[in-house]
Specification:
Blueprint (H helix, E strand, L loop, with lengths): L4 H14 L17 H16 L13 H5 L3 H33 L5 H27 L6 H31 L10 H11 L1 H27 L2 H16 L2 H28 L1
Length: 272
């Protein structure tokens, strides 16, 4: 099937802009989505740091140190508020990633596998957020079993989200040759966005995050090592940080497409 030459030129131009090559950068509101992994990590750090002022080592010995930070009183209030704000940011991040993959999956002929993984990962991430809220609003001092169920549910589901995202990128990479040739400019650009070398690096990085998080979790549960507990807790947020370049490039693509559409509309108005 022949592809129009103009479409090829547009795709090349947009893809070049997304990578920052020979094109002036233009802000688009979707660029703001790229800061979500960073703000989520900062929210977690600030929340736990604030709770440290209310931590005593004799509170609930043998339980996770992070859970003890929000055990009672003001510490629990800060803990719950901080994780509530964190949950909002994570929800926005999961939906943003889902929308990028959804736009891409419409572009190719292998939409079934990619779409299923995309929707399942979104559900997994949202369930993780629900568990996070259960953990945050139920203090380990007054509702230990509910809090711990939420905590372990959050960690397990976030690991599942990482695995599903990794599987999605690998599936996309392996089956990219099945994509349609004569599709729209926006979809073609987003296809290239998820098909670049960084997507491969991100997939490998996801494997590292899952392995490190899983090993540290196993060590922590066996001997209550605090270092392993904190490392396991921060591994998912390191994974989210790996999304930043793709989210930012998606914003650049959206800005380029919007500008081109605006020029076309302006030209049409001038002619009529």
């Amino acid at each position: 099937m022949l592809q129009p030459q103009a479409n090829t030129h547009d795709v090349r131009t947009i893809s070049s802009a997304a990578m920052g090559n020979n094109s002036p950068w233009r802000f688009h509101w979707r660029h703001l989505l790229a800061v979500l992994p960073v703000t989520a990590l900062l929210t977690l750090i600030i929340t736990l740091a604030a709770c440290f002022g209310y931590y005593t080592s004799d509170n609930n010995d043998g339980l996770p140190q992070i859970s003890q930070l929000g055990a009672r009183g003001t510490g629990h209030t800060i803990f719950a508020a901080g994780f509530f704000i964190l949950a909002i940011q994570m929800t926005a991040l999961f939906v943003a990633w889902w929308s990028i993959v959804r736009a891409y999956s419409r572009a190719g002929s292998f939409t079934s596998a990619v779409s299923i993984l995309n929707y399942v990962s979104l559900v997994c991430g949202c369930l993780g957020i629900i568990c996070c809220l259960v953990m945050a609003f139920n203090s380990v001092d007054t509702a230990e079993s509910i809090h711990l169920a939420g905590a372990f549910g959050t960690f397990g589901l976030l690991i599942g989200y990482e695995l599903l995202t990794m599987a999605l990128l690998i599936t996309h990479r392996c089956r990219r040759g099945e994509a349609y040739v004569d599709i729209g400019v926006t979809n073609q650009a987003e296809l290239q966005l998820l098909d670049g070398n960084y997507a491969v690096v991100f997939s490998v990085f996801a494997v590292v995050c899952v392995l490190v998080g899983g090993i540290c979790s196993a060590v922590w549960t066996s001997n209550s090592d605090a270092t392993c507990e904190w490392t396991a807790a921060f591994c998912p947020f390191a994974f989210f940080a790996g999304m930043v370049p793709i989210l930012f490039a998606a914003g650049t693509i959206a800005g380029e497409v919007a500008e081109r559409q605006g020029r076309k509309e302006g030209a049409y108005t001038t002619l009529h």
